[in-house]
UniProtKB/TrEMBL annotation, chain A:
PANTHER family for this protein: PROTEIN FMC1 HOMOLOG
Domain of life: Eukaryota
Name of the molecule in the record: Protein FMC1 homolog
Biological role: Plays a role in the assembly/stability of the mitochondrial membrane ATP synthase (F(1)F(0) ATP synthase or Complex V).
Protein family membership: Belongs to the FMC1 family.
Bias (Basic and acidic residues) ranges: 82-92
GO cellular component: mitochondrion
UniProt cross-references to InterPro entries, sorted A to Z: FMC1_homologue
Region annotated Disordered, chain positions: 82-110
Automatic annotation (TrEMBL), chain B:
Organism: Anhinga rufa
Compartments, as annotated in UniProt: Mitochondrion inner membrane
GO annotations of cellular component type: mitochondrial inner membrane
Entry similarity comment: Belongs to the ATP12 family.
Gene3D superfamilies per the UniProt record, alphabetical: ATP12 ATPase (1.10.3580.10), ATP12-like (3.30.2180.10)
Name the record gives this protein: ATP synthase mitochondrial F1 complex assembly factor 2
Quaternary context: Interacts with ATP5F1B; involved in the assembly of the F1 component of the mitochondrial ATP synthase (ATPase). Interacts with FMC1.
Broad class of the protein's primary localization: mitochondrion
Pfam families (alphabetical): ATP12
Amino acid sequence: MAALGSPLRTLRGLLRELRHASERSGRSYRDTPAYRHIIAAFRAHRVTSEKLCRAQQELHFQAATYLCLLRSVREHAALHREYHGKGERSPEEVAGLVGFRLPQQPGGKG
Amino acid sequence: PPERKRFYQNVSISQGEGGFEINLDHRKLKTPQAKLFTVPSEALAIAVATEWDSQKDTIKFYTMHLTTLCNTALDNPTQRNKMQLIRAAVKFLETDTVCYRVEEPAALAELQKNEWDPVVAWAEKRYNVAIGSSTSILGPNIPARTKETFVSHLASYNMWALQGIEYVITQLKSLILSMGLIDRHITVEKAVLLSRLEEEYQIQRWGNVEWAHDYDLCELRARAAAGTLFVHLCSESSTVKHKLLQD
């Protein structure tokens, strides 16, 4: 079985990710089907102690995999916004990069 | 093309005849080929719903890996049958990342030996097959019996799970690492690290470039995690009886 660490840590990480995911909707992350499902699963299998049976280990692996998915998607989206999402600069911005300003031409371009 | 704006307020799931459906306000989600979007597992439906509910102002389809996997399973756009999928998956063994070794630089060869030998050994023991590794440009010579063993094993998975397995193999470029994930022998983070071993080696030597390296790392982790979760949720015994999964 994979080295998964503490189930409690995985659960906390999952809840944190769910909170991030719910930010936009304004609803509490506790209102979501995902939250209810995860809490119910952890409670049903009591996956919070350190010693786990096989079914508990399978659930923990699934939880850790889902945590990895949520976290990686969020991090990837953040990197995308940071480095790949900005589009082109306007002519004013480009001029500004080298210390120029575009001329004002009251009659428009000739 | 401009991104699609989030056009729905509420996302919910409901149970229909064929399985679980996703509702965006009052509209039922459909696949790209306009079929009704139905999934065999409630947990999977919840995770898909979460993807849709996580979208902010615009819908970023490239972040919705589980939705994409479900669409592929429902539409089967490449029109492959079960045996074709299995053969495509097993074919990867011939160029499996963890079997394909370099001779130089010595440090990388050593790293490959230390990191990849254990997982190859695990697969050989778990499946009772000979795999080995090779520095030849032609790659390892995989015995026919080994391939047939994997073909048999993969045949025990249903069509949905197989789509997921083939997806993970394509992403990680390794059948062995994918089986390591499916069999819960290694975590997604570890599988991705092993898949990207040479990149990691170069990064340690030459430095990390966040906008390229971390970007690729996060994307591969997301895809491998989605694929693995998809396989597990589609092959749980409680869902195997479901109509949708019968081939």
